[in-house]
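Posting this for the archive.
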Amino acid sequence: MIRTVWRGMVRFLGSARLATWLLVVVGVWSMLGSLVPQGVPLESAVKAWAASNPLAESVVNAIGLHQAFSSPFFLACVVALFVSTALCAWQRTRAAMHRGRALGKAALADQQSVIESHDLEILCDPALSKPEVLSIASETLGELDIRTKRRGDVLSAVSPSWAVVGSPVFHWALLALIVVIFASSLQRSEGLMGVAVGQTKPDAPASYGTLHAGPLFDWRGVRRSIRVDAFDLQFETGGLKRGPTPTVSVLDGEGRVLKTQRVYPNEQLKTGSLSVYPSAYGLSVALSMINSSGFETGRLVQLVDFSETATEGTVPAGLIAISGNEGNAELKVAVTVPLNGASGQFDKVLPENPAARVVVTSMDDELLVDRIVSPGEEVALPIGDSLRVDSIGYYARLQVVDDWSTIPLYACLAAATIGLTIAFVTRQQIVLATVIDGPEGARLAVRVRLWRNESSSRSAVESELARALGRVEKGSTSQ
């Protein structure tokens, strides 16, 4: 009873139908997960999406699509798909090994082995000689698209042993693909990093505005930084306009440049496991803190994003907190860059004579300072220090992905494609024939195994050979 249940369960889990349905479910779920922001409900992207899509959010939240790739449902489907694919791969490997051995033996078969082990006998016209029987049989099989070779007194149409590897290779490659994808989801990092032209940022969580990292991703092993060297608002190459294009450099832990490259759509910078893609761009304001004695005490860069709704066309990417002498935050500073244009129609470019609008408020949001400042000018702060605008330029928002799985994924896909091609294109067949002399006349002994991609069948082989050789079939034998 237990053995029967076990075998039934193995057959169910290893069925192609179950694997197909699981692939469909995982694929659809992954597609839906890519359409909504991923993260916990308190994350800004999730909250913003929920606010703008209240009806869809009720469904998305109920089924856990904001945590699509870590939800119990998705993980259960992936595990079931892994088990199903493993069973399918093992079953097809066993079948391929059996057929491979049969093909290997058949390729070496001689006349005696065919006589001792064959599937059917065809009684031939007595007027036909042995060479004529073999010649007619070869032509007849050729008309059935079974091309034979003559080896002494044996006709042979035996597939090479490698013809059986297609299905196992495809299934094992698919299994490896599942493992790589799952492992990658645990060890992958992806986020958006804003970097001003000329600025260098370490590849660390604090440098990202939005960041998603797998639970096993180890930041301790990351020793590199990212720099934007230049920014071309209208880059053109190969006769095509690529749009806003930053030139990006990746530096190692010692500050040495690993790679420098322009990045634009379909042209990412890739070095090792790191890939850098363009996402958006904006403006940047370089600032310096000046104390009451006139000495510079610190520098920072404020990123500024374009906005269709802001009065002057830009909004700060974040607020600057300024601390007093005791180290407590006392002031909030918002920096924007007024653009040329009006009524929401602004030019998303750096103005010819750029200036920064510096708004200083208390921690209770009381307005203290609101000034337009040109590069080189300072704004006096209520705490006695001043804030100087050093320069105004562009910044690039980069999508930075650290994922070791790219090459293994391509390797798995390549192996799966090769396996699938072999499975669909190559034949798996054994057709051996030889002539047996007997008191009733010559008989054609034929061994037939037609497994895959055949245009004929055993019954067609029997009837056509019997018709061509001029006599009715004597009978079949099962070996």
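Residues 189-402 form one domain. The mean pLDDT is 88.
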